[in-house]
Amino acid sequence: MTGFDLTIRGGTVASDTEVFRADVGIVGDRIVAVETGLPPGRRDIDAKNHLVLPGGVDTHCHVEQRSGMGRMGADDWYSASVSAAFGGTTTIVPFAAQHRGMSLKQAAADYAALACQKSVIDYSYHLILSETDPQTLQHDLPELIRSGITSFKVYMTYDQLKIDDYQMLDVLAVAARERALVMVHAENNDVIRWVSQRLLERGYTAPKYHGTSHVQLAETEATNRVIQLSRLFDVPVLIVHVSAREALATIQAAQKIGAQVYGETCPHYLLLTEDDMDLPGTEGAKYCCSPPLRDAAAQEALWDALRQGTLQTLSSDHAPYRYDASGKLPEGDKTTFKQIANGLPGLETRLPLLFSEGVGKNRLSIPEFVALSATNHARLYGLFPRKGLLAPGADADVAIWNPTREVTLTAGALHDQVGYTPYEGMTIKGWPETVVSAGRVIVENGRLNAARGSGRFIPRSTPMPCTTERELTPSTRFFRSLTGSKPVSL
Ligand code: DUC
Ligand code: ZN
Ligand code: ZN
């Protein structure tokens, strides 16, 4: 084949199953060849001694979004997408959030307008659903799913966002009918509320009490509850940001009996612990996220779960709240654990951390890294085979990694607007030095070469978990029939 616009030459290519020597030939925005000995293109990149991997796909990040607590993140679509690109991620899927009283369709339209003006890499978005009225569930949601927004998140906690079990059943029924993937923030709201109230009454206000109030059993209980609810219709659910051992065991047990449960975790649950919330003054606020950081045993269990496939994706859950009154500390040094914005930044550090701590420390193979960083995201959320692999026909999204380059992480060197990194001073090994998005070399020699708004919206197909045809039991068939408008016979 001749006439490549770009070839990436002499590198070690990997997929989620194999590692092999090949050149990658690109025409326009697509990969057209992956084989050895390709002829020169109009431009050649020498990838000798480098790994040539699919650009990362980050399917859980918060960008230009107001939180359940009403707090605005520091990153807009421009800064977030630039930061993602520098960290080797070429597709992001954040959230268009419907807050109470808002039209879902309007929330999605407003969000789309922001994204298309600013993102420098390809993107889609999920929805966040906080209303379950007929307009939302019967009209807006099905229409948005059919337009390529094929997943959405619901919350079991946060007074301003949570849905109850009855609403959850309504939501799961629509997902089953429309073949969309439901992402769930699984924590028991009342347990957290009850414990928090008692702690505050007794003057326990420091950041570390965030961890105390988000006790592990709150995550276990909610995880189990939504899994059981999903079984009524045999509909897939994906538990986001799994942090704890018991929640993992619950997911594993449900998978064993055939429940369609998928799971995600994030770098901070693998690398940080509850001790990080226990720093002098309010410093621990930088480490408050929900669910909270756990302990070393949880970290080991999460690594195991990533290797064994209990959890399929590693997302950043980038939630960029600055360490000031706009984010983490609305009441300055008087801020209680209950007022701290929940979440950690991590779009740019997600893959370098996973590479260094995973591949570099022999916890993960290179194919496992590719699966957890890109391929599984693409499959689970309806982006495959356009994203998440290097093969003819796929989008030319490539991260060229120097596996031996050492980098010391500092907030000043990152490209988000958060102003701190939880990993300040940590030295890691391996960095995505050159990043190609839709055939454009957008990061090279530490510089960005991409215009605002040059990323594209990618309509998503039916998520893989929702495509599997399963034989329904008579009971599931019956309960599914109750979600339609036709009369059912008992
Ligand atoms: N849930 C998230 O998914 N991200 C940040 C905070 C939260 O509660
Ligand atoms: Zn969440
Ligand atoms: Zn999140």
TrEMBL record:
Carbamylation allows a single lysine to coordinate two divalent metal cations. SUPFAM superfamilies: Composite domain of metallo-dependent hydrolases, Metallo-dependent hydrolases. It comes from the Bacteria. InterPro entries: Amidohydro-rel (IPR006680), Hydantoinase/dihydroPyrase (IPR011778), Metal-dep_hydrolase_composite (IPR011059), Metal_Hydrolase (IPR032466), Metallo-dep_Hydrolases_sf (IPR050378). Its cofactor is Zn(2+). It holds the Pfam family Amidohydro_1. Its EC number is 3.5.2.2. The keyword Hydrolase applies. Keywords: Hydrolase, Metal-binding. Residues 51-441 form the Amidohydrolase-related domain. It is an enzyme of class 3 (hydrolase). The keyword Iron does not apply. GO terms for molecular function: dihydropyrimidinase activity; metal ion binding. The modification N6-carboxylysine is found at residue 153. One of its GO terms (cellular component) is cytosol. Belongs to the metallo-dependent hydrolases superfamily. Hydantoinase/dihydropyrimidinase family. This is Dihydropyrimidinase. It comes from Caballeronia mineralivorans PML1(12). The lineage of its organism: Bacteria, Pseudomonadati, Pseudomonadota, Betaproteobacteria, Burkholderiales.
